[in-house]
Amino acid sequence: MRILVTGAAGFIGFHTAKLLLARGDEVVGLDNLNDYYDVSLKEARLAQLEGEPGFTFHKLDLADRQGMATLFSEARPQRVIHLAAQAGVRHSLKDPHAYAQSNLLGFLNVLEGCRQAAVEHLVFASSSSVYGGNTKTPFSVHDPVDHPLSLYAATKQSNELMAHSYAHLYGLPVTGLRFFTVYGPWGRPDMSPFIFTKRILEGQPIEVFNNGEHARDFTYIDDIVDGVVRSVDRIATPDTGWSGDAPDPATSSAPYRLYNIGNNSPVPLMDYIACIENATGKQAIKEFLPMQPGDVHTTYADIDDLQRDIGFRPDTPLEIGMARFVAWYREYYGI
């Protein structure tokens, strides 16, 4: 099967492409290799893919309308896994236009490409950040999400709405996956596992926001990628029981599905830091700070639907996952 993976040089895209190639799929990788974080890390991921049979790469920006149209016309992917985006909640406060360009205009170009190429199934990355001001946990895809707390979250929620319109208007099967705090080897340098590990190993203080009173549903990369690939294999179909009188946000009379993809086990921030301390063998110097704008107190995924529909079973404990990340970090940076 020929599958287009956008964000192929990114953290989740790289691991997804590796798994698809390992099972014999043909992968068309797309990435713009921007400098939001260390480009050499993206290039190092890409170097591992480029030697694999069945992999081709296109350096292309999602917002390039003509370039995207040409790619879909020439590559003719059967399915699409859309993971490219301008990421980062806090960065969206500093550079909002980048989020509109990549996450809104770019996503529109992906949807149009899928429509024109008659793609069998589009799986796209949403985010747990869409839950915003919701406080009922665990977060359920069947609950409304009308109060985003950052522009990043608002763009991800917009993606869900845009995708539904294409499913309704054109019969394009689409599945949205709301990711919950993904971590593991080859992770992003702007995320806390990377930042905390680096600073702890260097003997530098780490910034602990909300005075440590956070909890996150940390989900190991191998578990995430297994769920992504299982999702692309199961083409979204209309929900025959869906009713406009009591509309379920997670399904539709169109071929549209939304799922949480997380570990279903929130970990208090201080316990998470202790895992990194154990993996590094060093004590963290902690600088306690107030809650940051755009942050949420707790993330906690209800994954019942994904378990039922595709057999998703995350099974990597945080202690093991963080040990693997720290081991990769030491090897990659020669520490």
UniProtKB/TrEMBL annotation:
GO molecular function: UDP-glucose 4-epimerase activity
Keyword Phosphoprotein: no
Keywords recorded for this protein, A-Z: Isomerase, NAD
InterPro entries, sorted: Epimerase_deHydtase, NAD(P)-bd_dom_sf
Class in the EC hierarchy, top level: isomerase
Keyword Glycosyltransferase attached: no
SUPFAM superfamilies: NAD(P)-binding Rossmann-fold domains
Entry EC number(s): 5.1.3.2
Domain NAD-dependent epimerase/dehydratase residue range list: 3-236
PANTHER family: EPIMERASE-RELATED
The protein's name: UDP-glucose 4-epimerase
Biological source species: Methyloligella halotolerans
